[in-house]
Amino acid sequence: MKYYYSRIIITFILMLAISLPAVYAEGNRDFMRETGKINVVVAVILLIFLGIVWYLVRLERKLTKLEHQTKDD
Amino acid sequence: MWWKALSIVLIIYTILAGMLVPLKSGIQRAEPAFAKAGEEVKFRFYGYNTFFQKATDAPIRVWLYYDDQFALAASDFKALNDTILEASFRFPQQLPERKASTSLNALIDHPVAGASLLPAAVYLSSDSLAQTDTVLANAWTANPVKQLHVQSGFSFPYQNVIYESIRNTYFHVPMWFVLLFLFTASVWYSIQYLRNPEPENDRRAAAFAETGLLFGALGLTTGMIWAKYTWGQPWSNDIKQLMTAVALLIYLAYFILRRSFDEYEKGARLAAVYNIFSFASLIPLLYIVPRMFASLHPGATGNPAFGSQDLDNTMRAVFYPAIIGWTLLGFWIAQLRIRYQRLYDKALGLE
Amino acid sequence: MHWKNLFPLLRKEFILEFRQRYAISGIVLYVFSMVFVVYIASIRVSPPVWNVLFWLIVLFASINAVVKSFVQESGARQLYYYQLADPVLLVLTKILYNTLLLLVLSTLAFGAYSLVAGNPVKDHLLFALVILLGSLGFSIAFTFIASIAAKANNSATLMAILSFPVILPILLTLVRLSSIALGLIQDTAYTRDIINLLAIDTILIALTFVLFPYIWKD
Q1: Which residues of chain B make contact with A56, given a CB cutoff of 8 A?
Q2: Domain boundaries, chain B
Q3: Is the pLDDT score of B307 beyond 50?
């Protein structure tokens, strides 16, 4: 159950982070383009970081499940 | 392991250097963008990262130039602030060439910040065609462009439209390289599996493919973000976008294929065969797609991206370590995946 | 490799097809239905749309025609062939047979399609060549993928998923070549595209010969 909630939270944060630049772009067209489009770089780095973290969290969850399985045997 | 430490060091270096090194000075635009021959016109040049008001030992120099021979120096100029420069030009009666109109490049030379250039800044038109070559020569060749200053210290090239997002070169572009290396490793282990059907080879092929999928998806989405704010739209049938998308489809199909067999060995073998077959069939796209759609990526003409000539030495000093760092990180993650799968297979009694 | 086995195997394919007439009739009906759907959906078809729709019809008909080539025979009979013939020879006969089948199918599709949606083809010779090359390319790629998909249970779905990325280079070139034949693009240097297509076919057929024995051994 604990993992179920953490998964929801992580998915939520991830979706928020990905959609944030798009939301800003809709409401205020200049957010991504101001200060020499530096926010495009920020969005790209953030997305890469979150993508890798998401993969690692998934891997960790699989590992935990495996640990539980081997403990039961 | 030394290479894991190296990957972290290189990625930290990439992020620090990639974000902290400033951009070179540039000219965003000139106003007005049109002028008539024989008139005196006052232009405003809008600079980016410029220091027009910073006191220097040598004066700032401003030109509108046609080519190496024909250039026109500003008769008078004044810096309104650090980013706006007002300059007057007295255009001769004739154009540099016997044409009715031509476009001139703007060049501002700053003793400290170096020379910055705006191609096709001003469009100059004339009512009468040039009569004699001698008059023309004197008016346009009196103040040639020479002794330009080069900015000392590290800086990235300035590009209109791209601006600071040129830094994405160190974050988005290496994803493509990581994808290429990981998928190549996957195909390599698929070949190994067909030659020697050991579960370890299959595990590696699958893990490299999965990690490659991760980096491919990241490369594609980051590319779409970058493309939206530089090319105007997220998707434009570009060769690299198409190749990545097709590669992702191939490996998604690869994983579906692996899981549609009851016997492990059969699935692994057929997936290995498909891996090799589809990877090889991806290569012809490199020759076909450029014949259908013009590429916006560097190397193609007429695009608002940077060309290979713009990848200067400063950028190389960050770009190459970035590729190595991200690739090592990719292999690190793939290794974790392989180790997990090894444990999993052992727990299930497959070995 | 015993080349003299090629013709008996090819003959076997034809006899098998003739015995299971309902299968081939089904695919022909499929082609006609798709053409009819196109006709109902849009009565006036502009040449660019005509081009794309034609290749979509041929693509889906080809997938459906080829997917059965490995499923229709039982495992026991396949084992029998395996002992009897070289796998490379076996796959070669399948490819040859499927090329002929697809050629007939796409010609039929072209006939029916031009009947209901008009015939905007300007260069008929080039278009015929494109259909021939398309049948060959589709046949090579789909035969190989079908041999993989046949090993799984949900082969029809798997076939579509697996073949799409592989067929994309061929399909793109075909669409380009046929739009030249339709006069949509003015390009006289289309021999490059034909060479590209033949090169892809060569790569795929070489890979098929190398990899097919690994699929076949069970």
Answers
A1: 333, 336
A2: 26-141, 163-347
A3: no
